[in-house]
Amino acid sequence: MKVAHLILTYTNPKLTERLIKRLNQPEFTFYVHVDKKLSIEPYLYLRKYTNVFLIHNREDVRWAGFNTIKATFKCIQEIAATEVKYDYINFISGQDYPIKSGKYMLEFFKKNKGKQFIEYASIEDQWIEALPRITNYHFANFTFRGRYRLEKIINFFLPKRELPDNLKPYGKSMFWMLTMDCALYVVDFFREHKELARFFLFTWGSDEFAFQTVLMNSHYKDSVVNNDFRYIDWSQGGAHPKILTEADLPKIKASNDLFARKFDENMSDEFMDTLDSLN
């Protein structure tokens, strides 16, 4: 069982290093994508670990923009091009942290081999509040002046957008654990369906529904488990989850999840040591 942990980060490299050390197993390899807007220099020291690689083909990640998907696709392709044949890719961020040990996770992957783990809901029937992300035009991936005003004008005059090829929209969380063949299927699907990539370019938060939409409209849907095994607290409302602190430890300890997010890069050593002691 070989697992590639894909980490998209723009935060403190020391936190990324601690995450890697917490998870480390002989069967695990870590691929770190550093946002292209940032200097790669502070992260270069991570290469001292023989199973850590920095993604070469970096992307300028835009919050809620399609560039996040482009970055993810580049990473999957770079991982697939290596000589190692990975069974799984586990997609996490630099503000995630393991709440289970590397050994526990390895057994999890072995026990569930062939299953796909990603959270999903039908955007038409269940996650209805997300529908305008798709049916309206959005310029989240662009930075030109007046883009919000232009959005309003375009959405006032143009009809609602519909997904190409009669695809049914699904989405929820952007993080997942997929078999290598499944992850590559999504990449190849977008490459072969250029109109879908163009459509998603003008959505908002496409990283929360691009993978789900493709997979739940594919032959992989029967192998998809509706769980990403991430502990995330959305109780404060809005587009960002709560920053977890020591006060959240009882709920984290009671969770069956593998990772928790979102953590501040300035977590106390005591808090992190407690997290490291779990399972």
UniProtKB/TrEMBL annotation:
<protein>
    <recommendedName>
        <fullName>Peptide O-xylosyltransferase</fullName>
    </recommendedName>
</protein>
<keyword id="KW-0735">Signal-anchor</keyword>
<keyword id="KW-0325">Glycoprotein</keyword>
<dbReference type="GO" id="GO:0016020">
    <property type="term" value="C:membrane"/>
</dbReference>
<keyword id="KW-0479">Metal-binding</keyword>
<keyword id="KW-1015">Disulfide bond</keyword>
<dbReference type="InterPro" id="IPR003406">
    <property type="entry name" value="Glyco_trans_14"/>
</dbReference>
<dbReference type="Pfam" id="PF02485">
    <property type="entry name" value="Branch"/>
</dbReference>
<keyword id="KW-0256">Endoplasmic reticulum</keyword>
<keyword id="KW-0472">Membrane</keyword>
<dbReference type="GO" id="GO:0030158">
    <property type="term" value="F:protein xylosyltransferase activity"/>
</dbReference>
<dbReference type="GO" id="GO:0046872">
    <property type="term" value="F:metal ion binding"/>
</dbReference>
<keyword id="KW-0808">Transferase</keyword>
<dbReference type="GO" id="GO:0015012">
    <property type="term" value="P:heparan sulfate proteoglycan biosynthetic process"/>
</dbReference>
<keyword id="KW-1133">Transmembrane helix</keyword>
<keyword id="KW-0328">Glycosyltransferase</keyword>
<dbReference type="InterPro" id="IPR043538">
    <property type="entry name" value="XYLT"/>
</dbReference>
<keyword id="KW-0333">Golgi apparatus</keyword>
<dbReference type="GO" id="GO:0050650">
    <property type="term" value="P:chondroitin sulfate proteoglycan biosynthetic process"/>
</dbReference>
<keyword id="KW-0812">Transmembrane</keyword>
